[in-house]
Amino acid sequence: MSASWSNNLNLTTTMNNRPKILIIYTGGTIGMIENPETHALQPFDFSHLMDNVPKVKKLDYIIDNYQFEPPIDSSNMDPSHWRDIALTIEQHYDRYDGFVVLHGTDTMAFTASALSFMLENLCKPVIITGSQLPIGEVRTDGEENLITALQVAAARDERGRPRVQEVAILFENYLWRGNRATKMSADNFNAFKSFNYPELAEIGLDIEYNTPYLRQMPPRPLKVCTDMDSNVMFLELNPGMTKQTLDYLLHTPGIKGIVLKTYGAGNSPSHPWFIECIRQAVERGLVIVNVTQCVNGGVNCSLYETGNSLTSAGVISGFDMTSEAAITKLMFLFGMGYSASMVKKYMASDLCGEVSIP
Ligand code: ASP
Q1: How does pLDDT run across 53-101, given as a tens digit for each residue?
Q2: CATH number at residue 306
Q3: pTM of the predicted protein model
Q4: Which residue puts its alpha carbon closest to atom 3 of ligand 1?
Q5: How far is the CA of 328 from the centre of ligand 1 (A)?
Q6: Domain count along the chain
Q7: Cα(93) to centroid of ligand 1, in Å?
Q8: Which atom number of ligand 1 is nearest to the Cα of residue 132?
Q9: Domain endpoint, select from 224, 246, 270
Q10: How far is the CA of 41 from the centre of ligand 1 (A)?
Q11: Active site residues
Q12: Residue at a domain's end among 188, 207, 224
């Protein structure tokens, strides 16, 4: 279901040279408060969040906000919410220098990946952040994350261009490329990491940008494509998976694409029944992408016989993509209406920094 929005837009923004940032508040722990009856955390509105970060006013920025109505736990995010975020950015793109998206951590890496595909030619910062502890808690990480995200969204280089021209995740000590990041901890303040791509910035006394690894985009009009096809899924291998289970999953009604989460460098069982099930699925028109279960490194199917058999069955390599990037890329490509062979072609290309093709 699509979220509705409440907004507080400062229409005087175009008359001023201070950085203009739009905060898009979707929900997540950062803005949650405890339900007095159940003691469970539940999302609360944007004014509560801002009341708890008075320091924001010290930044000499013009800050407006848009919020999901109601704000949500990110476990409830779906492509309709990604679409709402992308369209809000598109609608306000010319009027703001940067965008900060406040979001729950649980599915933050999926949203970051999806937005990176949806926002083609992006050359302004879209910084996604949240927190592990609610903003009202004494030891919250939310205040620091929010302030730093705003500073990164406002940062310019010596030539006056935005420092960050892509979708990125800001969390505690690091800024990561959005479609390279993964949630790696349920309780550490440094909750995200990109295992196959260096940090875009390190946050210490200063914000140290890792300039060679930041995307530099030639200025082109933003193109927003928000149709995502949800007929995709993960299929994670485990030792002992039966033919019946595999066959059942590969026959999921309506399914078009599968991210096959394999072992190590892209390996799977090489039993004839296993490879045959996969081959038949590919022949039925499914796009199957091989992504490793390991957090670090990628798929190299020529290394072992077990990986080779998958390739000969028609499975394509996801190289070093995160599983979040691989699944949202499939959703995006099928959403564009591409045929299976075009989807395979684009899965093996770098669209926006999500993959290193050897
Ligand atoms: N369940 C929360 C969410 O993803 C967790 C968080 O924000 O850290 O919305």
Answers
A1: 888 889 999 999 999 888 999 999 999 999 999 999 999 999 999 999 9
A2: 3.40.50.40
A3: 0.94
A4: 104
A5: 19
A6: 2
A7: 27
A8: 8
A9: 224
A10: 9
A11: 29
A12: 224
